[in-house]
Write a structure and sequence with these properties.
The protein is built from 15 helices and 13 strands. The protein is α/β, with parallel strands linked by helices. The longest helix is centred in the middle third of the chain and has 18 residues.
Length: 453
């Protein structure tokens, strides 16, 4: 696997231990180079990773500091997985936030299920809080209703705002049993997660589609460049090319590896990517993709004998991810345009660590296994306690749901929305209104928000 440039998640830790074991002086050299270490998102660092970092940095006067929030542990595993870091009694609490004000802080405090915490909001502007009630017939209008609230709040400034709709589950689940909103796809059928089908996730076209989507969404150039590099590295490996010292080509060394073959090659490849992927339609239109291949593949010739079929498969066109071939604004399946407002779509992980202007948390499924006790609908499970209707503690999959919702509701500065089935809102909606939330019952509104445009 290593010779093919493939690594599993746990290999990061295992491969890091190897040179430390073979050369004990290496840890001291690292401490000399980095005398201050700050580990951010420490709650997502499991025991084996932490043991490695402490072996290197928690000695000889080096300053090793950890910043984390147990209530945002999204990557926790079950079973025999090592325990994740939790703050001890000597930790300094950081309970204040300048991202949002007291309205969101108070609501979020009731969702600190893993470790009780009273959050203090120091944000300057009061936040608007809106709950949308829907049924199967009105679920398609949820995003439009939220966009309407955003326009009412920000007016002409909407185009400059970072606004999201997120869900615990954002892929395309199977439709089994009674109707319930299982994923973000139920709210916006054109949405597809970046991964796509597993069989096509690593194909060149799929990787470049991800880059095109991020470029269209004005994501940081470094993110887009890395996605392009991943695709080109795969193409180089399919041709049997190697990096220096016979190492496998990866996204981190691909451009250096190409320049070793010809100094002008990296520039030529980047130009083709710019013209056909970022500024063109190659990843969305099969005819344009074929033209792109006619420009790109000759740069990697000659092809190794016997690898033609593998290269052809890797370079095949992937059509399933495109939402609407005739509408340029919907080429990205991860955002919806409502006049001047762009509503970005994604999972909880899409916004983790971010500050956004507004966010809509749509009710969806949390799935940790096939058993009934390993599945739940997040907002149905979480909101009764969040609004003080019940004090039932969160356990099992319910604890996962509470963590997901906590991460979501602590992202926005000025606008927080929740979308809940009306059939499960009898106790929650009145409590929300009593606490200053605006409740909009979409099931009583005729036609206004039907559809997503």
């Amino acid at each position: 696997m290593v010779k093919s440039g493939l690594y599993r998640y746990a290999d990061m830790t295992a491969l890091a231990w190897r040179p430390l074991s073979e050369n004990p002086a290496l840890a001291e050299r690292l401490r000399d180079r980095f005398p201050l270490i700050i580990l951010d998102e420490a709650q997502d660092t499991h025991g084996e990773q932490l043991r490695l970092l402490e072996h290197v940095f928690k000695q000889d006067g080096a300053a090793f500091q950890l910043l984390g929030d147990s209530n945002q542990t999204l990557y926790e595993d079950d079973g025999t997985a090592p325990a994740y870091w939790t703050p001890g009694p000597g930790c300094i609490p950081l309970d204040t936030s300048r991202r949002f004000g007291g309205e969101i802080a108070g609501f979020a405090s009731r969702l600190t299920a893993r470790q009780a915490q009273t959050i203090v909001g120091l944000g300057i502007r009061p936040a608007s809080r809106v709950m949308f009630l829907f049924d199967q017939g009105k679920i398609g209008g949820v995003l439009g209703a939220f966009a309407e609230e955003a326009r009412a709040l920000w007016g002409d400034d909407c185009s400059r705002r970072d606004v999201w709709a997120v869900a615990s589950r954002h892929d395309l689940p199977g439709k089994k049993g009674a109707w319930q909103p299982k994923s973000l796809v139920d709210y916006h059928p054109a949405y597809r997660s970046e991964g796509g089908s597993r069989g096509q996730a690593n194909l060149l076209c799929r990787q470049l589609q991800k880059a095109a989507v991020h470029h269209a969404a004005a994501r940081p150039p470094a993110e887009v460049s890395e996605m392009l590099a991943v695709g080109i590295a795969g193409l180089a490996r399919a041709h049997g090319w190697k990096a220096a010292n016979d190492r496998p080509i990866t996204a981190h060394n691909v451009w250096a590896a190409l320049s070793r073959r010809a100094l002008a090659l990296p520039r030529a490849v980047r130009r083709v990517l710019r013209d056909h992927v970022l500024a063109g339609d190659a990843v969305w239109d099969q005819a344009a993709w074929l033209v792109f291949m006619e420009q790109l593949l000759p740069l990697f010739s000659p092809h190794p004998q016997g690898a033609e079929a593998e290269i052809a498969d890797f370079c095949g066109f992937v059509a399933e991810q495109k939402a609407d071939p005739t509408d340029p604004e919907r080429r990205s399946t991860k955002q919806v345009q409502f006049d001047e407002l762009t509503l970005r779509l994604g999972s909880i992980h899409s916004v983790k660590g971010k500050s956004v202007d507004g966010i809509l948390v749509v009710e969806s499924e949390v799935w940790k296994g096939s058993g009934a006790d390993q599945q739940c609908i997040d907002l149905t499970t979480v909101l009764p306690r969040a609004f003080g209707v019940t004090d039932q503690p969160f356990t099992g999959v319910g604890l996962t749901a509470a963590t997901n919702v906590f991460v979501d509701v602590t992202r926005p500065r000025e606008l927080l929305g929740l979308a809940l089935r009306k059939s499960h809102s009898a106790a929650v909606a009145p409590a929300a209104q009593a606490q200053g939330w605006k409740v909009i019952d979409l099931t009583t509104i005729l036609g206004k928000f039907d559809g997503n445009r």
